Amino acid sequence: MTQNPRSQPAAARPGHKHPDAEQRCPCGSGDTYAACCARFLLGAPAPTAEALMRSRYSANALLSRDPAFFAGYLHRTWAAETRPALSDLTAPGPHWRRLNILGTTAGGPFHDTGTVEFVAAYQDAPDGGTSSDQPRTRGRLHELSRFRRESGQWLYVDGDVS
Description:
Blueprint: H1 38-41, H2 49-62, H3 67-76, H4 86-89, E1 95-106, E2 113-124, E3 137-150, E4 153-161
Antiparallel strand pairs: 1-2, 2-3, 3-4
Helix pairs in contact: 2-3
């Protein structure tokens, strides 16, 4: 019987450049990548709005390793009415440095909606490029994100950036 590639640990998936399964997860939970966001990126449904938020942050942080795979995850977990084109999600972005969850409202296993407020720190080249020889500027994204659960799957709807 052929093993389902979606059930393989992230580091074992051929063709995908995931972090080592024992590395700390990019979302900052303190868990390893394998014990945290990898399972959601590989297809398991996130149990809460916060878990989806963390996995989407990880997908953004890892985007440059495998743009098609990680952009695909972002696209699949975005509500259809606000979702951008898949091609818009594969473009290189800033280097995400740290995620800090400030609070959540609802978004648990027994809710259909929820919010997650977070601050994400990043570094970016002044011209938006990724050249390592350019000085990078630091910034932060503060957002109150809205989530909705449909058919057992949490989806990102939109957010207010401040």
